[in-house]
Known about the structure:
The protein is of the alpha/beta class. The chain has 13 helices and 17 strands. Strands 1, 2, 3, 4, 5, 14, 15, 16 and 17 form a nine-stranded mixed beta sheet that branches.
Amino acid sequence: MHEKTLVSGLLLMASSAMAADDRLLIKHGYVMTMNAQNQVYPDADILIEDRRIVAIGEALPASGAHVIDARGGYVLPGFVDAHNHLWVTTMRGQFRNAQGKFFPVSNKLGQKMQPGDIETAMYTGALELLNSGVTTTGDFFDNIQGPAWGDAGYQALKHAGIRAIMYYGGPDKTTHHPIDLTHLRQLAQRQDSLVSLGLAWRLPRNLNDAQNWQMRDAELKLARELRLPIQVHVSGDHDAMFNALIEHHILASDMAVIHATDATPRQLEAAQAAGASVVITPVSEQRVGYGLTRIDHFAAVQHFGLGLDGNALAGSGDMFATLRLAALTFSGATRDETLPDPMQLLRSATHGGAEALGLQAITGSLEPGKRADIQIIRPDTLAMSGFGGGDPAALLVYSAQPENVDTVLVEGRIVKQGGKLSGVDMQQVMQRAQQSAREVVARAVE
Length: 446
Ligand SMILES: [Zn+2]
């Protein structure tokens, strides 16, 4: 079953890659570039050749190019979801507050997932992201119970056609077990333009456990030898954990600190001085009770991204919902209706996320030379109706939903068009997700 799915997935990829146009012209869009000046073109074209953006401007000549008419739509870089755990996608509805908290439930169900369940969850989750305009994800994969689990996750990301860093982690969320560094090294040696590897690292739960530090240090050493990006969670005893990162001189430009909801100014200054990134995930952080995620607290950090942290935990893979919560928490907490700047929020969800993943040379903005990771948002739903010309950035942050994402390109390949994912049998995808979810639950109660 598992192998058959993989084979059909690879065939699907091959056929859609062959069908990709080498030369594409997106015409007459309201282009929000997210470049250093957040430049906007009210009516511009984007020319794409060989998977890259080659020109942005008015009335670009491009004879022979395949044309996508973006008239009336907003053209943005694809969102960058800087931190996720896609393997929890098939646990939707399992986190039932008093009846089932996230950590014990996801640990229990996660242990019952076979490689095929991992593949289903991560593939479904990645499709959901693409459908919502997310073209890049940083996936913190912390349910790798053996090489087959790791391979299944990698294949799922490849099959979905999303750009991803797969941060390779251990078999669960504890820090008792080592990460399979041999397998990580093998996967990291694969050359792929979309999916690359990183390290999903954790500090010893007991920060005085010298033996555990040895294991964790070996993991860091390998990641740094292979020049892999690293993500680390600071949660639970977050203050001591962040301090440990500082005291052990672990922070560096290859590292993103995740969930630093309550980080102090001194800690954030240390992260910034080391060139490290910070990623916050407002919906999940508030859901599990870490506190109010105040994006204004992170102003000192240059590489700052937003993430979803598990589509099922966040409710859905909806970056607009994350933007909305971040905006409303900011204005509510500061009692200031004029804050935040919606364009700045969109920037965190695109260019900021790319910086947090170290992918800013490739994606996160619409500029010549970058890979064509693009979304076109159409305001042709009731929720976005009645716009007579105010601030398009505010319109997107406060009113847009995934259903408004009409077209999505990942590295010049059209993965969504006319509001539908290309080459995907949605009914089959959803049936598989439901079946896998049921089987995992059934195994967990046995
Ligand atoms: Zn996380």
